[in-house]
Amino acid sequence: MKIRCVFLDTGDQPYPNVDLFIRTSGEERTSGFLPWQLNYAEFNWTVDHLPDMTPEKLRDIIIDYSRRRRRFGGNDTVNHFSFDPKITARLELSW
Questions:
Q1: 46 with 61: CB under 8 angstroms?
Q2: How much is the CA Rg of the chain, to the nearest whole Å?
Q3: What's the CA gap between 71 and 67, in Å, rounded?
Q4: What percent of the chain shows pLDDT beyond 90?
Q5: Whose CA is closest to 67, among 13, 15, 20, 10?
Q6: Would you place residue 35 in the very low, low, confident or very high pLDDT band (cuts 50, 70, 90)?
Q7: Bridge partner residues of 45 (DSSP)
Q8: Cross-strand pairs, 44
Q9: Which DSSP string corresponds to 50-86?
């Protein structure tokens, strides 16, 4: 089922649904930010403040995200997508 985001803040964007939400400053809440678009988003909570975010920290967050098993509300018996771990490892090493 595809969620229609026509009337949401991100409705006119090419990818209206959020895949990864990074919350800085040690807060572990969304503060009501994009409540509908964050339904199936993965969250990363970091104690660093935004000015202290470095490319290396962002890389580590993205690598952590790439290793997560996403089920989109389903269970493990449904195969949502498949990927080749060799490709992921090559991307991580080349970064």
A1: yes
A2: 15
A3: 13
A4: 7
A5: 20
A6: confident
A7: 23
A8: 22
A9: GGG--HHHHHHHHHHHHTS---TTS-TTS------HH
